[in-house]
User: Which sequence fits this backbone?
């Protein structure tokens, strides 16, 4: 049995090692030892403390796992009030300029005086926390509360891996005797998504009292104010420091940036987007740059914060009521807002997909006015239980289509029924079916369905299909809404008379369109097949089919088994093609298009195996002397080769031009045959 002093020393050493590795893991994101080694050290310390409870310290990493549930939180009076911050609501640059103008006025600076130095930071969207360290050890964590009195959430905060339980200083930068670090507890978006997925799985397997969270902020705030620390310990929280309360006995700081730098040195997480800037222009630039990156950040922010950097100037500026004069929050347009659902419509897409869409009372969110938000599909709509008349939270981030995040259940006063997906297409009345394993209902009406017609026409006319210039969205809307066009062949029955009747259609444009339609009649089989908009049949598949069968009729007549013989055609594509051509109205559309004069060169079926480069994979890189990349690709594909994007062991040939880079290196490494343009042409002739 070792002496007690030895045990104490061992416990101390273990704590130090665990602190060091936790900091590398949680804060620096650069672990130095495998998780298993960390766990081993952790268990050793746990066992020591178990056997000798008097060795337990509040800063021991074992204290992170969460203690017993509480009845409620004790109140904590803040030594230095936790103030809030003035908010500039201007969305544009004026927010930053107003602040700088105000600072210069308050500081009585003239035009000739140099620019004021600021610190620009992110405004994290979480929950403000005060962390009190005494002699470097975390002794208390409290929420802001009303700014004077908050709640003691120490147990929960101890479970946050990023928050150091002990600060490590050194001789040149000792940790103050008392230090209150202030910052934001938040949840990263990926952690939030993962956690919600787990919550959904629990709910699906019948767990009661579990719920999903609306957004990372609510999830973080909920976790911090969770009475059972064991539950809080399972919530993936993060932390950034941006300020402080009481500081007693430590280095003399001159600027705000210096303090944040010291925090970093002591092991407290500080965002690396903190910038020291001068004057209004640099604040404007910061606001713009962050605004652009906002959606790529791993966590939510709702704006930026500007602070006067000099602590002496901060003191001079002082406070107005409960806000410091020396700081301002400059917000971005909110990405979430509450509004009401006026109706739930079901929209029909090109391939017949039915999407429930909430029609909303107009609301300004994410910088635009939103009136529609997707509910994705039946399961999503059910899970969120969105009903007509509900108050809902709508989110629009970046260019993503707006979505309903959640219903505000407390505000439901009506008894509207739950949403159900129609079993008939709301537009053409054909059966809507949901196939096994799929999330979506689809209308079975195909090209016959009016709602799918507009999308189908646009798809048919696009450059990569029939290439009908001038057939844009507005015109298609007009033609379909006026009942002039019901099916694809109607396009080729258009006359000047129809077009002249349309608004904003001049004679010249009408004539051009008719000429373009005429020209489009001469096409190729792959373009025609792709243009039909058959589900799962993209350009490449259309090409494979055309090459394999040579002409349209055998494709239309092919059984799924026969279709499966086409290289790269799998069961899903085969089934989709077969179903499409089994519908009499789809066959009718094809016949009518042919009758309207659409034609393409048809050839003999060319079994792929008979082509000279069948089964060969070729990669192109660099610039060839005479052939463009497209030309080389077309020639290779016509000879039956597959043109791939990257070099692998499966690559048979690499065709390299000038400025070939890493693909050439890779090919050399793998011993792939390397050809130049002359070699390529020889290969196309000989086939080996
Ligand atoms: S400074 C005395 N800096 O926004 C100034 N606050 O209303 C105290 N926040 O309660 C706040 N990021 O919860 C500051 N970089 C940042 C911040 C920040 C988020 C929060 C904080 C505060 C609220 C301001």
Assistant:
């Amino acid at each position: 049995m070792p002496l007690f002093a030895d045990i104490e020393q061992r416990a101390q050493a273990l704590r130090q090692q665990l602190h060091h590795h936790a900091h590398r893991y949680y804060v620096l994101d650069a672990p130095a030892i495998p998780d298993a080694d960390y766990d081993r050290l952790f268990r050793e310390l746990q066992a020591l403390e178990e056997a000798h409870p008097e060795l337990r310290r509040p800063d021991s990493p074992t204290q992170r796992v969460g203690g017993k549930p509480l009845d409620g939180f004790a109140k904590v009076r803040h030594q230095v009030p936790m103030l809030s911050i003035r908010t500039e609501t201007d969305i544009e640059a004026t927010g930053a300029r107003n602040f700088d103008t105000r600072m210069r006025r308050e500081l009585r600076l003239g035009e000739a005086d140099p620019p004021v130095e600021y610190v620009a930071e992110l405004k994290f969207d979480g929950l403000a926390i005060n962390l009190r360290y005494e002699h470097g050890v975390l002794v208390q964590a409290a929420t802001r509360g009303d700014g004077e009195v908050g709640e003691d959430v120490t147990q929960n905060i101890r479970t946050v891996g990023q928050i150091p339980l002990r600060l490590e200083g050194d001789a040149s930068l000792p940790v103050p005797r008392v230090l209150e670090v202030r910052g934001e507890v938040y949840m990263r978006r990926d952690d939030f998504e993962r956690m919600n997925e787990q919550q959904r799985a629990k709910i699906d397997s019948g767990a009661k009292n579990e719920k999903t969270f609306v957004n990372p902020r609510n999830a973080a705030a909920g976790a911090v104010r969770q009475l059972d620390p064991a539950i809080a310990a399972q919530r993936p929280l993060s932390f950034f420091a941006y300020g402080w309360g009481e500081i007693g006995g430590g280095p003399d700081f001159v600027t705000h940036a210096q303090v944040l730098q010291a925090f970093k040195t002591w092991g407290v997480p500080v965002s690396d987007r903190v910038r020291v800037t001068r004057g209004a222009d640099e604040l404007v630039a910061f606001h713009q740059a962050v605004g652009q990156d906002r959606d790529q950040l791993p966590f939510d922010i709702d704006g930026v914060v500007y602070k006067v950097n000099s602590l002496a100037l901060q003191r001079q500026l002082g406070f107005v009521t409960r806000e410091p004069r020396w700081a301002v929050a400059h917000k971005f347009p909110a990405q979430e807002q509450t509004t009401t659902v006026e109706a739930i419509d079901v929209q029909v897409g090109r391939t017949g997909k039915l999407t429930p869409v909430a029609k909303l009372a107009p609301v300004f969110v994410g910088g635009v006015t939103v009136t529609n938000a997707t509910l994705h599909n039946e399961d999503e709509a059910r899970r969120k239980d969105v009903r007509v008349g509900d108050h809902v939270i709508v989110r629009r981030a970046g260019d993503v289509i707006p979505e309903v995040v959640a219903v505000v259940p407390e505000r439901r006063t009506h008894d509207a029924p739950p949403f159900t997906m129609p079993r008939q297409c709301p537009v053409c009345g054909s059966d809507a079916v949901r196939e096994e394993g799929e999330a979506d209902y689809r209308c079975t009406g195909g090209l016959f369905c009016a709602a799918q017609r507009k999308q189908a026409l646009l798809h048919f006319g696009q450059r990569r299909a029939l290439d009908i210039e001038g057939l844009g969205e507005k015109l298609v809307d007009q033609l379909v809404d006026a009942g002039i066009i019901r099916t694809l062949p109607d396009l080729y029955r258009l006359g000047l008379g129809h077009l002249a009747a349309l608004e904003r259609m001049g004679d010249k444009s009408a004539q051009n369109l008719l000429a373009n339609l005429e020209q489009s009649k001469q096409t190729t089989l792959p373009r025609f097949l792709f243009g039909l908009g058959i589900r799962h049949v993209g350009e490449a598949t259309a090409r494979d089919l055309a090459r394999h069968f040579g002409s349209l009729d055998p494709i239309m007549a092919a059984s799924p088994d026969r279709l499966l013989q086409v290289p790269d055609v799998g069961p899903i594509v085969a089934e989709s093609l077969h179903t499409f051509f089994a519908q009499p109205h789809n066959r009718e559309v094809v016949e009518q298009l042919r009758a309207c004069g659409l034609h393409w060169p048809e050839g003999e079926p060319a079994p792929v195996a008979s082509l000279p480069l069948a089964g060969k994979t070729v990669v192109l890189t660099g610039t060839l002397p005479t052939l463009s990349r497209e030309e080389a690709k077309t020639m290779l594909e016509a000879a039956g080769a597959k043109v791939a994007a990257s070099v692998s062991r499966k690559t048979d040939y690499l065709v390299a031009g000038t400025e070939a880079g890493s693909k050439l290196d890779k090919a050399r490494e793998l011993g792939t045959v390397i050809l130049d343009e002359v070699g390529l042409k020889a290969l196309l002739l000989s086939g080996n």
About this structure: The chain has a mean pLDDT of 89. Residues 4-27 form the longest helix (24 residues). The longest strand covers residues 336-348.
